[in-house]
Amino acid sequence: MTDYRHLSYWLSGLDEPLTPRPGLPGDTDADVAIVGAGYTGLWTAWYLAEADPTLRVVVLEREIAGYGASGRNGGWCSALFPTSLPALARRHGRDRALAMQRAMHDTVAEVGRVAAAEGIDCDWRAGGTVMLARGEAQLQRARAEVAQAHAHGLTDDDLRLLDAAEAAARCAAEGVRGGTYTPHCAAVHPAKLVRGLARAVERRGVRIHERTPVTALRPGAAVTPAGVVRAPVVVRATEGYTPGLPGQRRTVAPVYSLMVATPPLPEETWARIGLAERETFSDYRHVIVYGQRTADGRLAFGGRGAPYHYASRVRQGFDREPRVFAALRRALGELFPVLGPDVPVTHAWGGPLGVARDWAASVGLDRRTGLAWAGGYVGDGVGTSNLAGRTLADLIRGVESDLTALPWVGHRSPHWEPEPLRWLAMNAGLRVMSSADQSEHRTARPSRRADLFNRFLGH
Ligand SMILES: Cc1cc2nc3c(=O)[nH]c(=O)nc-3n(C[C@H](O)[C@H](O)[C@H](O)COP(=O)(O)OP(=O)(O)OC[C@H]3O[C@@H](n4cnc5c(N)ncnc54)[C@H](O)[C@@H]3O)c2cc1C
Q1: Distance of alpha carbon 373 from alpha carbon 361, whole angstroms
Q2: Which contiguous run of DSSP H or E holds residue 410?
Q3: d(CA 65, CA 206)
Q4: Does residue 448 carry a pLDDT above 90?
């Protein structure tokens, strides 16, 4: 049996047994069947149960609640959305784009509100995000991001430029030339959030069956080896694991993000690094990195850079890529030389997130078939999955609301290309971005290759 504690630093330290809940006992009738007990499935269940306690909601999970990205992520509960504000405005108009972004802002507070109301102690700290600009090319991107955000209706209260001193006062990384700050983010302990949420939905009468793999989703039914859950609405909440379901191989591509955590750092070290408000932090390089100061005083730091695996395969072995762990340690050491030449690391892990072909997250319910879905959050699912859950609860109950009018509702992303094209394109993109970072480091000039690639993706 899988040692679930081994899957991430967050799961490893939980003060609760990770014993699987009982599996599905046999054929069952329900009003809503949800496949996947990560944030998406559990938020959907929570809002359904809150709105209508008489609904029979059944969640089916192949492993345990929080097994997927929800138990392993960087713990940025942010208002980031995979499609940028300008790209949303091009597709849907300025007002709808702004409504989407404002809904994401509200979502951060909503996660904190429900966590507090349910007594979920997830080390919540709404300290915002500081994005560092290290070098001229990154500074140009920081300025451009703020200018674009303001041109689309946001203000300094949402995102503002920091000069070098202001940025370093928040996060004293090496070579900081400036940066940006947004208050719209909280640092969380992701596994405490997802496990607490599972208990909260159970208290509200939702049934969760673990170690229950769904082998097929079809209108009116979720099929498992132990029996069939018959329900007029079936929700797919499987994100990076979606390609394993029949008929879904090209719906999203699983992309791996990997993380490391240091031991708890002494107060003298924190006095030199900063992050006094537990701001989540990153910089403006192309191959995304992200970090947080954990409640127990560690640096938890992650990044992309792991290869995409042929045919969208997802395996536990792919969670660990020594080359990427070494690169993350190097990157941490470059950011914070105070950590010494050999950055100490106690935990290293990773997991798959879901990327749609047009990089657009979406949520929807096909009324004809009763099949619903949410996902394609790329690396922004901690907040976005809550908005998805609230929206699905409205869609499923037939309620028209501000949420169901948001532009991502009902969006259908195109399918990914068949292999080997998918593999070639994903890994070529990764190479473009990392070579762009290297060239910007050498020349201090923005890389045109990365801009062209971003434009090709419609960012
Ligand atoms: C290392 C890492 C760092 C990240 N950092 C951040 C961050 O800081 N901020 C942020 O916003 N986002 C981050 N993300 C992304 C974020 O974690 C995800 O977008 C989010 O957790 C997705 O939640 P989910 O419930 O949709 O999917 P998941 O949490 O992946 O849950 C899907 C569940 O479905 C189950 N399942 C799959 N197939 C089946 C089946 N056939 N039958 C039954 N069950 C099935 C899985 O076992 C799993 O439990 C990160 C992701 C990773 C991997």
Answers
A1: 11
A2: none
A3: 13
A4: no
Instruction: Compute, in angstroms, the gap from residue 333 CA to the centroid of ligand 1.
Output: 28
Pick the atom of ligand 1 nearest to 213's CA. Answer: 42
* Cβ(20) – ligand 1 distance below 6 Å: no
| Helix H or strand E segment including 302 | strand 299-303
Ligand 1 pocket test target in 10, 62, 301 with most atoms within 8 Å of CB = 62
Portion of the chain with pLDDT greater than 90, in percent: 85
347: DSSP letter: E
Q: What is the pLDDT of residues 267-298, one digit of tens each?
A: 999 999 999 999 999 999 987 899 999 999 99
Q: What is the pLDDT of residue 426?
A: 79
For residue 94, give both structure tokens.
């300025």
Task: Indicate if ligand 1 lies below 6 Å from the C-beta of 379.
Answer: yes
Task: Give the distance (Å) from ligand 1 centre to CA of residue 132.
Answer: 27
Say whether pLDDT at 1 is over 70.
Answer: no
Rounded to an integer, the average pLDDT of 224-243 is 98
Instruction: Tell me if 350 CB under 6 Å of ligand 1.
Output: yes
- This model's pTM is above 0.70: yes
Go through 316-352 and write b for each residue having 16 or more CB atoms within 10 A of its CB, e for each that does not: eebbebeebbebbbebbbebbeebeeebebebbbbbb
